């Protein structure tokens, strides 16, 4: 029976030291005071992962705008990572600049519960965590190995989390950056009108909208 730490929303993301495609990394030192995205891959030289890392690389400016650092992981070694990056750059027309953790002994994978024995006893599943500047886990998404992630959704959730932290609002179904947001139920309509000068639209006493504060 595995003695694995199960990480849940709101938990502190554990620190680790590991080799990577860009040298030795201390996770906390790498993140500093930024937001972070840690995402695992079943293996190097696999087609779905190749497209994912290529697309993530193309989003580097988007992550930078959101003060977010990206770091990937798989259970292959540093040399494989470095050679695979050449393939990713060639086939996806990009330049991967973020590190890929080499986790051959699966220490980080087990620390973050990235290996699910019912799916594979050796390879990591396709998991992704968003970690805030306080090192708290704010999002956990796990996909099957055969399904590539939707990084537009990752950016959407990142925008929502940062907006929620800055303005104490909530975001409705299918919300996109720039659209109306929801006034939290704990705030009275009277106080909401004072807090959100752009106006408050009341659909029901518990369902109230206001224009996105930072637009």
Automatic annotation (TrEMBL):
Catalytic residues (positions): 49
If you read the UniProt record, what top EC class would you report for this enzyme, in one word?
A: oxidoreductase
Biological process per Gene Ontology, one example term: cell redox homeostasis
Database matches in CDD domains = PRX_1cys
According to the UniProt entry, its GO molecular function terms are: peroxiredoxin activity
Q: Which domain of life is it from?
A: Bacteria
Phosphoprotein listed as a keyword: no
Cite the EC number: 1.11.1.15
Tell me which positions the record assigns to the signal sequence.
none
Q: Cross-referenced PROSITE patterns, in alphabetical order?
A: THIOREDOXIN_2
Q: An example Gene Ontology cellular component term from the record?
A: cytosol
The answer on whether this UniProt entry bears the keyword Oxidoreductase reads yes
Alphabetized Pfam families for the sequence: 1-cysPrx_C (PF10417), AhpC-TSA (PF00578)
Swiss-Prot/TrEMBL keywords: Antioxidant, Oxidoreductase, Peroxidase, Redox-active center
Domain named Thioredoxin: residues: 7-163
Protein family membership? Belongs to the peroxiredoxin family. Prx6 subfamily. Belongs to the peroxiredoxin family. AhpC/Prx1 subfamily.
What protein does this entry describe? Alkyl hydroperoxide reductase subunit AhpC (Peroxiredoxin)
- Organism field: Chryseobacterium jejuense
């Amino acid at each position: 029976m595995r003695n694995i730490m199960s990480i849940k929303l709101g938990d502190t993301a554990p620190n680790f030291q590991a080799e990577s495609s860009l040298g030795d990394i201390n996770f906390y030192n790498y993140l500093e005071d930024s937001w972070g995205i840690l995402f695992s891959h079943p293996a190097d030289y696999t087609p779905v992962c190749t497209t994912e890392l290529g697309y993530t690389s193309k989003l580097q400016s988007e992550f930078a705008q959101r003060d977010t650092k990206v770091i990937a992981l798989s259970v292959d070694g540093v040399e494989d990572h470095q050679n695979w990056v050449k393939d990713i750059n060639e086939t996806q027309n990009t330049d991967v600049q973020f590190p890929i953790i080499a986790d051959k002994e699966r220490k980080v994978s087990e620390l973050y519960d990235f290996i699910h024995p019912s799916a594979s006893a050796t390879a990591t599943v396709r998991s992704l965590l968003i970690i805030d500047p306080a090192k708290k886990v704010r999002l956990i998404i796990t996909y099957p190995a055969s399904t590539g992630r939707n990084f537009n959704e990752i950016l959407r959730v990142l925008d929502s989390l940062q907006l929620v932290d800055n303005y104490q609002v909530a975001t409705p179904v299918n919300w996109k950056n720039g659209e109306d947001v929801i006034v939290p139920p704990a705030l009275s309509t009277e106080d909401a009108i004072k807090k959100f000068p752009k106006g408050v639209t009341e659909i029901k006493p518990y369902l109230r909208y206001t224009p996105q504060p930072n637009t």
